[in-house]
Write a structure and sequence with these properties.
single chain, about 50 residues, alpha+beta, two-stranded antiparallel ribbon
Amino acid sequence: MAPDDQPLVEFIREHAAAKRVVIQARQRLSGGAIQENWLLDLLIEGGPW
């Protein structure tokens, strides 16, 4: 995990009510004139899911 991933990981962990979240892979998607679109492969442990 990159150091700048921590705020995103914490956001996902809190909103998913998970014990742990790990970003396993990421890929920036093409397109989008005004925005950045990303595909994330996450490992989410614990929580109601």
